[in-house]
UniProtKB/TrEMBL annotation:
The keyword rRNA-binding applies. Part of the ribosomal stalk of the 50S ribosomal subunit. The N-terminus interacts with L11 and the large rRNA to form the base of the stalk. The C-terminus forms an elongated spine to which L12 dimers bind in a sequential fashion forming a multimeric L10(L12)X complex. GO terms for cellular component: ribosome. Forms part of the ribosomal stalk, playing a central role in the interaction of the ribosome with GTP-bound translation factors. HAMAP family: Ribosomal_uL10. Keywords: Ribonucleoprotein, Ribosomal protein, RNA-binding, rRNA-binding. It comes from Spirosoma utsteinense. Gene3D superfamilies: 3.30.70.1730, 6.10.250.290. This is Large ribosomal subunit protein uL10. PANTHER family: 39S RIBOSOMAL PROTEIN L10, MITOCHONDRIAL. Pfam families: Ribosomal_L10.
Length: 176
């Protein structure tokens, strides 16, 4: 591979790392052709890009970013590596890995970056699946902020109806 080809691969990876805020680095040693094809099909069906890339290319691409990915150097960027990208859903690759591991334990999560937060090791898979997206968190916060206002409004509306009922009852008693 020529130097300019290597540079193009690193440049492409850098662009993906900058534009997609979450990515997963996996290892798939010893997979058969059928297992590899199944994994690639599952990725395609879910809109996940799966690329087998040399660790040195990943390392050089990560070095160009502002965030510190140095914890990946000693543990994650060893052996064979592949990178998974999904443009809008940070959980999708984690769910795919967990589902794929039901049929083959050869796919391992080595590390992930979710909005520059690093998760290292296969034991982080359930944590990654449980993470809420930014949109989900914003929705929960808005719901919590609206809740007291809704309670006040309903109390005022309910109190107004009670007050009107009491006044009507009192006026009916005076007439009788």
């Amino acid at each position: 591979m020529k130097r300019d080809e290597k540079g193009a691969i690193i440049e492409e990876l850098t662009g993906k790392f900058q534009s997609i805020p979450f990515f997963y680095i996996t290892e798939a040693n010893g997979m058969t052709v059928a297992e590899t094809n199944n994994l690639r099909r599952m990725c395609f069906e879910r809109g996940i890009e799966y690329k087998v890339v040399k660790n040195t290319f990943i390392k050089k691409a990560l070095e160009t970013l502002e965030a510190d990915f140095s914890p990946f150097n000693d543990t994650v960027l060893q052996g064979q590596s592949a990178v998974m990208f999904h443009p809008s859903n940070g959980k999708a690759p984690a769910k795919l890995i967990k589902e794929f591991r039901k049929t083959s334990d050869k796919l391992q999560l080595k590390g992930a970056s979710i909005d520059s937060s690093l998760f290292i090791g296969a034991d982080q898979l359930d944590t990654l699946i449980a993470l809420k997206s930014r949109e989900e968190l914003i929705g929960e916060i808005i719901g919590l902020l609206q809740s007291p206002a809704k309670n006040v409004i309903s109390a005022l509306q309910g109190g107004g109806n009670k007050l009107a009922g009491i006044l009507k009852t009192l006026s009916e008693r005076e007439e009788a």
